Amino acid sequence: MKPLRVAVGLSLAVLATLALGALNMPAPPDFFLLVVADMARGGAAVPAMLAGLPAGLLQDGLFAPGRLLGLHAFSKILIGYLLATVGARTVVEKPVAVGGLLMGAVLVEAATLTFLIWVLTGDFLPPAPWLLAARAATTGLLGGLLYAASRVPWKQRREARRRVRLN
Known about the structure:
Number of helices: 7
Strand content: under 5%
Distance between the termini: 36 Å
CATH class: Mainly Alpha
CATH architecture: Orthogonal Bundle
Shape: globular
Radius of gyration: 17 Å
CATH topology: Arp2/3 complex 21 kDa subunit ARPC3
Order of helices and strands: HHHHHHH
Structural class: mainly alpha
Number of domains: 1
């Protein structure tokens, strides 16, 4: 069930990234990070890291084909491990806390990518601070909203509506 969930999530992440890229959105959310965070939600580090590998490789293929393949994969694996560790040690129940964790994850990933590019190529290329802040905010907001939507008992609500209609 989980591999299918990751595959569907990554497919939706690719489609959403391409759609927002076609719309020239300056700071779209990191949809691939949302897939990794979903796998890290239970506190299991290995599935989160295994989800981070294809997510990062797909992101590398979309954003920088042929140039240092694996940078996003490494950072997604690291973020998956960190989010799973936080998930195993604390209870994160509020959508605001989930959004805050995702905002922090975007910032840690950007710092990791900047460091890796600096070490591997010698070029220190930090991202624009306002674009990074906007990307972190949109990712945190979207992640918090998706988490809040996942906590709603949709099946019970549907069954209650069906019973009301039958009576």
